[in-house]
């Protein structure tokens, strides 16, 4: 809370505040020392002497100190983001994705609610990398991450599990809503063309969906298992689409 208040002040105002405090303390200290040791100076001389030095030194020193504080704060925020976010796609990384979804399942207010778990795998992604290069492949991953974030915003949780595999956790959702979203995701990726030199690269995605209920038997591992089975089934039957499985919870 204290750090947030200091940030609101801004660097220039914070330096001015430190300077003002330094001047006031210097004046008080100078007056006290003069009285204790019996120095014969006027009040005006005390104020001038105690004011000039802090007014010159405090801004110079505090400007760099405050600047270091802000740099440290920005670095901490960046490190915090890197610990949560996949650097390429800007969705949650695997670890933080599982943490977010587990937190929802453990929340008592979400007890017995339905939720859906998507596992999404870009079809024939290796061919894209082999034919067009990894830079093009990275652009496909970036675009797909953006599609997922746009179509499944908070409170849904989007994460990259690794490579071309993603996951989406959708709390308190019906089967029909989950299927509609899956179709929107498939269509959005079909419509998204990545320009590569004189070609336009198109991609498709296969989606496995597990429909679950949050109870004693429920867990992310359980939901993932059924979504992964549904994904495998979809890939066997032609890819570019989705399949829904129901967990036994």
Describe this structure in words.
The protein is an alpha+beta fold and 249 residues long. It folds into 2 domains: 2-81, no CATH class; 94-246, Reverse transcriptase/Diguanylate cyclase domain (Alpha-Beta Plaits, 2-Layer Sandwich). It has 8 helices and 7 strands. It has helices at 2-9, 11-37, 43-82, 94-106, 125-132, 134-151, 175-191, 220-236; strands at residues 114-122, 157-162, 165-171, 193-196, 199-202, 205-213, 241-246. The strands form 2 sheets. A 5-stranded mixed β-sheet has the order 2-3-1-6-7, sandwiched between helices. Helix 2 runs antiparallel to helix 3 (43-82), helix 5 (125-132) crosses helix 6 (134-151) and helix 6 runs antiparallel to helix 7 (175-191). The protein is elongated and about 100 Å long. It starts with a helix and ends with a strand. The model has no long low-confidence stretch (mean pLDDT 84).
